[in-house]
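#onboarding

Welcome to the new folks! Below is a worked example of what a typical request in this channel looks like: someone posts a single protein sequence, and someone else replies with the predicted structure as tokens. Don't worry about understanding the tokens yet, we'll cover that in week two.

Example request:
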Amino acid sequence: MQQSLEACPLLRVLVLYENRLTRLPPLNNPMLQELWMNGNRVASLHGHTPPSSSATNDGDAGDGWCPLVGHLHLHDNSISSLGCLRMFPLVTALTLSFNQVCGVLNVLLAKGFVTCTHVLLVTSGG
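Example response:
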């Protein structure tokens, strides 16, 4: 999938919902503005490192940089840890409903995500 996405440098919207994905694909799309990953099996957002980071890029599928993503749809996954959202520095709307994350607002504020103005977090009634 990485080669296919790299062949689309002007991609602005990527819809990958309900594909049984367990982690985010390798994204290095500076023009991407909206990412739909709902209805998959993503458990964590750990391992996301911008290319300018001093961390080693070992080809992990989590590495990437999408500086213009404003809308990040991650609802209906298995996310229990937000890990690092550095690859999406300008996210303004984050949908995390029906995941297992706790303390979303604290994590966003601690990581300096002052651009995020909308967070939707709905849990199941169970």
